[in-house]
Amino acid sequence: MAIATVNPATGETLQTFEALGPEGIEVRLAAAHDAFGRYRLTGFAERARLLGRAAELLDEDQDEVARTMTTEMGKPLAAARAEAAKCAKAMRWYARNAEGLLADEVPSEADVRDSGAGTARVVHRPLGVVLAVMPWNFPLWQVVRFAAPALMAGNVGLLKHASNVPRTALYLEELFRRAGYPRGCFQTLLVGSDAVEGVLRDPRVAAATLTGSEPAGRSVAAVAGGEVKKTVLELGGSDPYVVMPSADIERAARIAVTARTQNNGQSCIAAKRFIVHRDVYDDFAARFTEGMRALTVGDPMSEATDVGPLASERGRADLEELVEDAVGRGARALCGGRRPAGLDRGWFYEPTVLAQVTDAMRIHREEAFGPVATLYRVDGLDEAVALANDTPFGLSSNVWTRSAEEQRRFVRDMEAGGVYFNGMTASHPALPFGGVKRSGYGRELSGYGIREFCNTTAVWFGAET
């Protein structure tokens, strides 16, 4: 895939970039390695100052970087601004909290004595150069939720961003440079996917994190496993959105529209499979379909647009194939199911609700990465849980119920990295983020995320020390 900015609203190629060759990659690897040797010795106060300055600059740049993201991958401009604001907020959160999250841990006096020590503690030290392989769908947030904790922990970063968001990738390197980070602390590698293996195998790279497709995750995990290097993988999702009879159906249906179509439906944690109890199915389906049908599809630069184009022509074709397969096998489109009239340029697709979905359809097993929802009717809680778990993915989940007993059951039985009640899944710096099954492993964000790329070290002093 060429490294290029292609406007998905028009299909126009705006700028192409030459990939780094071996010499350019070597320069950046050497700079990262040298930077880590110095940067790991800085204190939390200095790291917090630098990250706070980056947040200030990002706030100042919000409109400009939002337009860059919208131009490169098509998210509505208002959503792009919100993404930039969220990144600045996360930077400030880690600047305030990293020192506490990485504070030394001291075992109980009894455990220290039992170990034969005079004193003992656990410390968290940075690993080194971390390679981040990041996707296009949240081109700023996906990177910042890695970079903020990694830099606060004393690591340095190399970013291999998706090839269709090069302007955003270059902006991120420049942002950290302007904030005052030493040379080499955060660099963008404008390279194709074929260069990732060589970078990851380089002994100066200590670990990697990837957010992306399952095939990409498998590839990175295989290489890292061969090199015995730490990885964190956040892969696909097909999150369930379960609605039980005690739910506020009007609110559940209204939030469901946002949960399915956020970021033009191109989000791993978007709700995708809507599992509704038969007692409230008809009411929910009518309200949800009405809300999906009412969305405005169009120019993502317009403030009036709710849903912009998909990020690529291939992405739209993949979505169309899933819908056509489902309809051909008996699913019914309650709304959408086609390209919108009047939008001949760009890669647009109508918000779609598919009912009567069965396990014979591809869309039941595969991730639909676009504004297409599948709707299921169930008879009770046990069937809802079984259907929610009937997927190779396990990223997050949404459940609408006011019953405390039902809530306990869903927490106990859902095969997912998160269970969100009476609201939609959203990532926040204070909460761990990640999945199970083929949605990957490891966690981002919170204290769990910042410690993923630390050397958790036992420090033991003999009683006579």
What CATH calls the topology of the largest domain is Aldehyde Dehydrogenase, Chain A, domain 1
Largest sheet: 7 strands, mixed
Q: How many β-strands, per DSSP?
A: 19
Q: Provide the CATH architecture of the largest domain.
A: 3-Layer(aba) Sandwich
Concise overview:
The chain has 465 residues and is of the alpha/beta class. It has 16 helices and 19 strands.
Report on this model:
This protein has 465 residues and is α/β, with parallel strands linked by helices. It has two domains: 4-235 and 439-462, Aldehyde Dehydrogenase, Chain A, domain 1; 239-428, 3-Layer(aba) Sandwich (Aldehyde Dehydrogenase, Chain A, domain 2). The chain is built from 16 helices and 19 strands. The strands form five sheets. The chain has a seven-stranded mixed β-sheet with strand order 11-12-13-10-9-15-16, with helices on both faces. A six-stranded mixed β-sheet has the order 6-5-4-7-8-18, with helices on both faces. Strands 1-2 form a two-stranded antiparallel ribbon. Helix 10 crosses helix 11 (278-293). The mean pLDDT is 97.
What are its keywords?
single chain; 465 residues; alpha/beta; Aldehyde Dehydrogenase, Chain A, domain 1; Aldehyde Dehydrogenase, Chain A, domain 2; six-stranded mixed beta sheet; 20% strand; globular
